[in-house]
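Section 5: illustrative case.
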């Protein structure tokens, strides 16, 4: 795709679009929340459905001409049920945050209480951060990971739930490398007679593939992103039991959204269809194996990992022991220079500021989409080590950039004939 039509009318935007495509081709996307959607998903997302208003739900729209919109939304829902096994699915949330917003609006009143994981310990803004609508609308207290182990302090969470008496307990995280024990969190929610929202934004694909325990059937509400470990294009999703279906649907529309982004719903339908093929389970397993290989090799180089390793798609590196003078920001910037794109991150017990924190977070979903195996991930770990160890050494960085370039050529993405993953 050369964006020829955009170029005809708008060369400046075409240049940026081509530049971004090339950037993705030529660099290693290791931001744990990113992935590469297939050409089929991209095509569906750029379809004429972007023109269509379809307020309401299939069979009950507020506008005429929704026959194909209905068909696509029903396909997306049916496929989501096949992937996660929920009774009720709403595929309309524009994003993971709006999926969470839908649940809060459906079940809480302003001033109600949320108990969620501290942002610095791996939580998400939409779980009650003061800068987010949740922090401004609800009373929020937060639980933490155990400072010794880096694992969720489940016992502390249960005690906290008993003393705080929340209306909803939120599980599911942005920077937590370990398998989440949703049953134990449900016990804490039960102790407080609270709802349980499991936000599986990051692990949606891992759960669908059965490589991470599922909260469906455990938590009252499950929300997710459709573009992280599952490659269905940007968006959100809510799943719940039938008893909450009407409340959730009304909260999404007209509660927090107007017309659904039907082109994105089409992307979700296509991406969910891809994830239902047998190759997806293998992909998800490889994502986790790759993260483990990456983490183990980083440890061999002396890096300290929060919780000592990973069960998921990401590792969280605490630089304070191995590189006390190098912040996450310095590491992120040096790595970006060589084509490794990951993000600075706070770590539990953070001693720097959130804008210049002590950690870096690295994920393997996008590398695995390119076809990376454990060996390739170990090579990346070696390169990360040399760059973080010598962030100002131009010759080290030049060598690292050449290694990244070789890996990109070995595992091509969109632009070449054999590229972008066999989704069969
Ligand atoms: C746990 C969690 N929930 C929600 C979101 C929000 O997703 P979105 O960016 O689609 O709003 C994220 C994003 O990374 C996340 O990590």
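Designed sequence:
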């Amino acid at each position: 795709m050369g964006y020829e039509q955009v170029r005809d009318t708008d060369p400046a935007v075409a240049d940026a679009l081509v530049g971004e495509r090339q950037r993705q081709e030529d660099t290693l996307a290791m931001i744990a929340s990113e992935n590469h959607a297939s050409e089929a998903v991209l095509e569906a997302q750029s379809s004429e459905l972007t023109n269509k208003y379809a307020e309401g739900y299939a069979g009950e729209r507020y506008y005429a001409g929704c026959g194909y919109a209905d068909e696509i939304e029903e396909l997306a829902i049916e496929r989501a049920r096949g992937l996660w096994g929920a009774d009720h699915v709403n595929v309309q949330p524009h994003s993971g945050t709006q999926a969470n917003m839908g649940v809060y609006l459906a079940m809480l009143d302003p001033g109600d209480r949320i108990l969620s994981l501290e942002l610095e310990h791996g939580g998400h803004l939409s779980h009650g951060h003061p800068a987010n609508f949740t922090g401004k609308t609800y009373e929020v207290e937060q639980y933490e990971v155990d400072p010794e182990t880096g694992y969720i302090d489940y016992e502390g969470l249960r005690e906290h739930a008993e003393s705080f008496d929340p209306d909803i307990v939120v599980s599911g995280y942005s920077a937590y490398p370990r398998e989440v024990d949703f049953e134990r969190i449900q016990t804490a929610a039960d102790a407080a007679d609270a709802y349980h929202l499991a936000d599986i934004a990051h692990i949606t694909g891992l759960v669908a593939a059965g490589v991470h325990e599922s909260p469906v059937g455990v938590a009252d509400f499950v929300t997710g992103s459709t573009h992280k470990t599952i490659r269905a294009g940007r968006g959100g999703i809510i799943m719940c039991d039938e008893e909450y279906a009407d409340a959730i649907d009304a909260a999404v529309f007209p509660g927090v959204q107007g017309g659904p982004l039907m082109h994105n719903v089409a992307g979700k339908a296509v991406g969910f269809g891809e994830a239902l093929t047998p190759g997806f389970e293998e992909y998800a397993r490889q994502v986790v194996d790759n993260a483990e290989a990456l983490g183990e090799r980083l440890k061999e180089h002396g890096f300290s990992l929060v919780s000592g390793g990973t069960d998921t798609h990401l590792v969280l590196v605490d630089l304070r022991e191995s590189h006390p003078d190098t912040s996450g920001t310095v590491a992120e910037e040096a790595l970006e220079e060589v084509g490794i794109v990951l993000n600075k991150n706070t770590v539990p017990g953070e001693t720097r500021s959130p804008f210049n924190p002590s950690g870096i977070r690295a994920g393997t979903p996008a590398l695995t989409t390119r076809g990376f195996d454990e060996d390739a991930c170990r090579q990346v770990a070696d390169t990360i080590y040399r760059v973080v160890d010598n962030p100002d050494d131009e010759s080290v960085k030049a060598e690292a950039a050449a290694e990244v370039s070789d890996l990109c050529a070995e595992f091509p993405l969109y632009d070449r004939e054999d590229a972008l993953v066999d989704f069969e």
